[in-house]
Amino acid sequence: MIEVENIHKSFGDNHVLKGISTIFETGKTNLIIGQSGSGKTVFMKCLLGLFEPDEGQICYNDRYYSKLSTKERRNLRQEMGMVFQGSALFDSMTVEGNVMFPLDMFTTQSQSEKQDRVDFVLKRVNLVDAHKRFPAEISGGMQKRVAIARAIVMNPKYLFCDEPNSGLDPKTAILIDNLIQEITREYDITTVINTHDMNSVMEIGEKIIFLKNGLKEWEGTNKEIFKTDNKAVTDFVYSSELFKKVRQMYIEERN
Amino acid sequence: MKYLEAIGKYFIMIWEVFKKPTKWRIMKTLIFKEIDELIYGAMGIIIFISFFIGGVVTIQTALNLTNPLLPKSLIGFAARQSVILEFAPTFTSIIMAGKVGSYITSSIGTMRVTEQIDALEVMGINSLNYLVFPKIVATMLYPFAVAISMFVGIFGGWVAAVFGGFAPSGDFIQGLQMDFDSYHVTYALIKSVVFAFVIATVPSYHGFYMTGGALEVGKASTTSFVWTSVVIIIVNYVLTQLLLG
């Protein structure tokens, strides 16, 4: 579980985060949504420890990040997995090399143990025949799977995903969403996903936080988002005619 | 003010490079890879340029020694001094700033743009140590390349002098041996170690701290070449004053 207590972050005169408090629960897919420039990426970088908040605290299972020593922070980082928007795979390494990289860096396992673990996670993300291929030789969807495999290879307690299905076709995007949700439940991970994708919101949004101008405007679940009267949320989520009709149908059906 | 800030940031980067080292087992592989890319991969162009520079220096010297009282051995002497003192260490370093420096900036810059550096940071890895330290170690072998450049440059001079009909082989070789001071080689190799450090770190700085996209990677490579060359020229002046002045 990650508890965020009133965090603020500014860059010069630009006050990006203006006091956000929330709880990201373990075993659930927690989504952060909001318009571009609402502070989602900065918020996620604060959660990852890449930015230090100017004010407020972030607590990872009773460990306050600001109170941790450098070594403890480093150890905490090793409990985190991250799936970047562009996958961020190392171009010079094969798929297998990318997934094995954290094991090489942080474990003392033998080569066969590492190989077994890599084979296991690649199989888990449904990639069985891409071990020796380079990132440039595989599709965007496969790259995302490799990124997920690399993120979970160390058995992380926290999984962060920055727009994991951007640039993917709708079918692959849903597969990736479902994979993340399955992994979250299976390994009891605290997963935080930064997304613009409304399909993800509806499919896997077990907890949704809507940010607007650096503030938490709304929070709830994918069931509650249908019912909300918050104008900012409905304007954002139901900005397309299709989603407006879906919402209307849902409300009529309920009545 | 902007330049002062950049200089400060550069020295902080150097400090960070040596903190929290990567596992030796991993680092060893990275160092060998960088030696292959930065030193072995640059040998072809170093040999090619050194040979022709040595030849051109010899021809220029020969064409300017018109006084019949001056011995032909001076052609060999001038070629040796020019190649050892300046052309091998400094001229080759400028070429390396273009070839190796651009490669370093663009490879690190691309990693920055594609969030690969962020991925390293998130994993708790000191990305500066992981990316820059192997390059610094690899370029410490640069004096060997400079030594080869000296040899090839002088050989190029000999070929130009003998086959161009500017001086007989015996006179040229006599000039090469005339008043030889081994400290000049030491001076050149000391310079090349410092230049190697500049070639590894200045382009790394420009790649690591770049912002933007693919276009900015290209711009950063150009800026890095300009600044690496400027720093080499200034350091060359300072070292010459300190070591020979």
Q: How would you sum up this structure, described in words?
A:
The complex is a heterodimer of chains A (255) and B (245). With 255 residues, chain A is α/β, with parallel strands linked by helices. Helix content of chain A is 42%, strand content 24%. Chain A contains 10 helices and 10 strands. A 6-stranded mixed sheet of chain A has the order 6-7-8-3-9-10, with helices on both faces. In chain A, strands 2-1-4-5 form a 4-stranded antiparallel sheet, covered by helices on one side. In chain A, strand 7, helix 6 and strand 8 form a beta-alpha-beta unit. In chain A, helix 3 crosses helix 4, helix 4 crosses helix 5 and helix 5 runs parallel beside helix 6. In chain B, helix 4 packs antiparallel against helix 10. The model of chain B has no long low-confidence stretch (mean pLDDT 93). Helices cover 83% and strands 0% of the residues of chain B. With 245 residues, chain B is an all-alpha fold. Chain B has 10 helices and no strands. The two termini of chain B are 32 Å apart.
Order of helices and strands of chain B: HHHHHHHHHH
**Strand content of the residues of chain A, in percent?**
15-25%
Query: Tell me about the biggest sheet of chain A?
Result: 6 strands, mixed
Count of beta strands of chain A: 10
* Overall SS class of chain A: alpha/beta
In sequence order, what are the helices and strands of chain A, one letter per element? EEEHEEHEHHHEHEHEEHHH
